[in-house]
């Protein structure tokens, strides 16, 4: 081989973390550079024209609901929102740090709540399609109750009961804050739940499918998904993105400089800037622009104090694009949007779960219905063979 041949040889693809590898089939979601599709429907179409309950039905049941099917689905969810009082008492004690930990992570609280729910679910050990759909509906309905009870307990407030007159998104806001959301806030939350509902074989979904492939139960697989999403390289980016924007605002208020100077210093110090880049989307996350537009509407309604976060965010986004050619992902506008809506920052990732539970359960059901245990091979890089007594 000549020197020219060596130079022209393509660089081997880095497949660590299964990068670029196709490891299975799914009829639930398609992710590409140009589209994000849930069971045949593109995400911008769903965000503009569907409700979260309709999307949840699409993912869990498998088709767009008729008006009658949607009413029945919503009525079922509303009737399933109550959580066993004993479970809520445990959640309250953990959230109030009565168990020895000074700062319990809200995702850990939610993971514990889902695990506890398994013990009172009559279908827990039944992996038949009918039982799994019932379990998925109960989880979807009860997760906002657990999130809200945990947050209100954490804040030292009296938790509120789920409101049967509110849709899923509005009820989630009510349970977390104890305040009835405005129509615009409820709509923005509804859109954000649609955008977060599903994303093919991401880390948490893949973790859930691996667990399901052993023929374990849905609650166990969901707990695995939550554990994966808790990791800052998967979930939590929206929280970190908002913390960065607050740091920039404090930097400006202290007279240290403007956004451009902050970013210049951040680049020089090689700080990790959250909410940018995506493993799949190299030309921009389809969901980011949609959520930014809706969040900006709420901010503009509230006035300059709220809109400033989008002004700062837009400048950060432009600098990242101009100087690094990196686009924001959906977590970047999510941080700003949830913040101006008054949502407690620690609950940003649990809200992700209140949405993604639909995608996780759809994948768990799909795995169980056409199962083969997921067991890949590893490339051994350890020492050569040795003799123990040699």
What does this structure look like?
Strands 1-2-3 form a three-stranded antiparallel sheet. It has helices at about 5-10, 45-50, 50-60, 65-80, 85-95, 105-120, 130-155, 170-175, 185-195, 205-215, 220-230, 235-255, 260-270, 285-300, 305-325, 330-340, 350-370, and strands at about 30, 35-40, 40. It is globular and about 60 Å long. It starts with a helix and ends in a 21-residue tail after the last helix. It folds into two domains: about 30-235 and about 350-370, Citrate Synthase, domain 1; about 235-340, Cytochrome p450-Terp, domain 2. α6 packs across α7. A hairpin with a 4-residue loop joins β1 (about 30) and β2 (about 35-40). With about 400 residues, it is mainly alpha-helical.
Largest sheet composition: 3 strands, antiparallel
Radius of gyration: 22 Å
- Regarding CATH, which class of the largest domain? Mainly Alpha
Summarize the amount of helix as a percent range: 55-70%
Q: Which homologous superfamily in CATH is the superfamily of the largest domain?
A: Citrate Synthase, domain 1
Low-confidence stretches: 1-9
Global structural class: mainly alpha
Separate helix tally: 17
The CATH topology annotation of the largest domain reads as: Citrate Synthase, domain 1
- Which range does the strand content fall in? under 5%
Please state the average pLDDT score: 91
Distance between the termini: 41 Å
The figure for the number of domains is 2
Number of strands: 3
Global morphology:
globular
Secondary-structure element order, N to C: HEEEHHHHHHHHHHHHHHHH
